[in-house]
Amino acid sequence: MELLKVSGIIIALLLLPFTSAFAPFQNHRCTSYSTQQYKMSKDSSENNDDERAEALEKAVKAMTNFSNKYCENTGTKYCSDKSVPAVVIQGLAEHKVTLGAPLCPCRYYDDKEKEAKDGYWNCPCVPMRERRECHCMLFLTDDNAFVGEETHITEEEVKELTQTSLLG
Ligand code: SF4
């Protein structure tokens, strides 16, 4: 009889992890694991945001320098409203980060990755290189009604003018 009691207790102990009495402990373990997982994924998404912001900053700098140099080399000028080149440069920089190439930001594409690989619309695009035609109005020739006097824009202007245009 005593032996039966002891065996019953042993079996009950063995089954404990699978009974509802054990559930709070299991839940606790799951909860703390999820919290940890959530924290890790939050940290990693913050890191990704930081990396993306840094990459975008570098790309804005690169595209601003490229545009200033290209204006000089081709004898073109920026629009009298500098928010136009600022928005285009920002768009080129975003494509440089997301696609690895400065795909023209003023067009619609069914498949941006394919277009970026193709290269026809990577800035300076083929129409610009062949005929000095920039439909984004980034590089304007003297006969354009909207041409300004300047061939230089700073990164600060790009940031400031794109923020203003996004907000307003
Ligand atoms: Fe560059 Fe051509 Fe777009 Fe002008 S139209 S911003 S040159 S890709």
What report would you give on this structure?
The chain has 168 residues and is mainly α. The chain starts with a helix and ends with a helix. The chain contains six helices and no strands. Residues 9-30 have low confidence and may be disordered. The site of iron/sulfur cluster has 13 residues, from loops.
| Percent in strands | under 5%
**Mean pLDDT, all residues:** 84
Helical segment count: 6
Regarding quaternary structure, what we see is single chain
Which percent bin holds the helix content? 55-70%
Shape: elongated
Bound molecules: iron/sulfur cluster
Annotation, overall tally of beta strands: 0
Termini separation:
86 Å
Q: What string, H for helix and E for strand, traces the elements in order?
A: HHHHHH
How can the largest sheet be summarized?
A: none
Cα Rg = 30 Å
- Judged by helices, strands and strand pairing, the structural class is mainly alpha
Top keywords for this entry?
binds iron/sulfur cluster, 6 helices, 168 residues, mainly alpha
